[in-house]
Design goal:
The protein is mainly α. Helices cover about 70% and strands about 0% of the residues.
């Protein structure tokens, strides 16, 4: 963009002011200049300033005003090498702003951030979230590889990748999910968190029509980890799957974990009515579950 020298001089003079009034500066830019010059000012700051507060405000201005034609230099900013630790959060903010454009032209840069294992995990998490938000299925392969990579050290990155795969809605993800759910590494707590994210991601698929998704969900109800079973109950509760009531009822009746039973009870109550609470109170259920049913009645039914 070829801009007159006086605009550059204006910016350089303003940026040297001390103390710097950020609010007044941005109001002045928007009131004095047209859109093209305003965008030039944003780009100049991101390329030349080391003032982290100013850069933070600039990115927020771009995001809040949904300023067009800023994607290119936002991408340049997240890819620019930096030794300053303060720039980490700024790059995370820039990636979130990029995701709001939902533009496929950002995919290459986001995948680069994802695959750079020397990068801070916050950058990688933000890149994964952005890929899911943009929703282009070309992101399936890098996200799928992350989940299945035994050498991937960050459990958080794997979990976020599972969530993003659900956001993509690509049915190929179900094969990846099935492989993870059937693994024998269930003794690892961090691995169980990954399973939880997978079960949550299933809600993005049409489980009532996809046998593979339904099979994964049903097997999750029998997972050795109670947190995974609870996630499966919650996913079933929010679905319109035929027979979901009976599947959850089995966990209420036969599960050996009281927290799973409690979650099953509240799910059944949300699906139907207070009759399930009365059934627990009057039936052959343990005393803790009966007390929980009574608490629900007292709190919700007797208001």
């Amino acid at each position: 963009m070829n801009e007159p020298f006086d605009l550059v001089s204006y910016l350089e003079k303003k940026l040297k002011q001390n103390p710097f009034d950020y609010a007044c500066f941005f109001d002045e830019i928007k009131n004095q200049f047209d859109l093209e010059k305003t965008i030039f000012c944003y780009e100049y700051i991101l390329k030349n300033s080391n003032d982290t507060k100013l850069i933070n405000r600039t990115i927020k201005e771009i995001n809040s005003n949904k300023t067009p034609n800023c994607l290119g230099f936002l991408i340049d900013f997240i890819l620019k090498p930096s030794t300053k630790s303060d720039f980490l959060d700024l790059k995370v903010l820039a990636i979130k702003t990029i995701s709001n454009y939902r533009d496929k032209n950002a995919l290459g840069a986001l995948m680069y951030c994802l695959n750079d294992k020397n990068s801070n995990y916050k950058i990688r998490l933000s890149a994964i979230e952005a890929l899911g938000k943009i929703g282009d299925k070309s992101a399936f392969e890098p996200l799928g590889k992350i989940i299945c990579d035994d050498k991937e050290k960050s459990a958080y990155v794997k979990e976020q990748a599972a969530t993003a795969l659900g956001m993509l809605g690509d049915n190929r993800a179900l094969d990846v999910f099935s492989s993870i759910m059937n693994t024998k590494q269930i003794f690892l707590d961090k691995f169980c968190y990954l399973k939880e994210r997978i079960v949550e991601a299933l809600s993005k698929f049409d489980i009532s029509k996809d046998k593979k998704a339904l099979t994964i969900l049903k097997s999750s109800l029998l997972d050795t980890n109670p947190r995974v079973r609870i996630s499966a109950i919650e996913t079933l509760m929010s679905s319109d799957i035929e027979g979901s009531y009976n599947l959850i009822y089995e966990r209420l009746k036969f599960d050996d974990d009281i927290e799973v039973q409690k979650n099953a009870l509240i799910a059944l109550y949300n699906i139907s009515d207070k009759n399930i609470l009365l059934e627990v109170l009057e039936g052959k259920f343990n005393s803790v579950l009966k007390l929980y049913a009574k608490e629900i009645i007292d709190e919700y039914e007797n208001e």
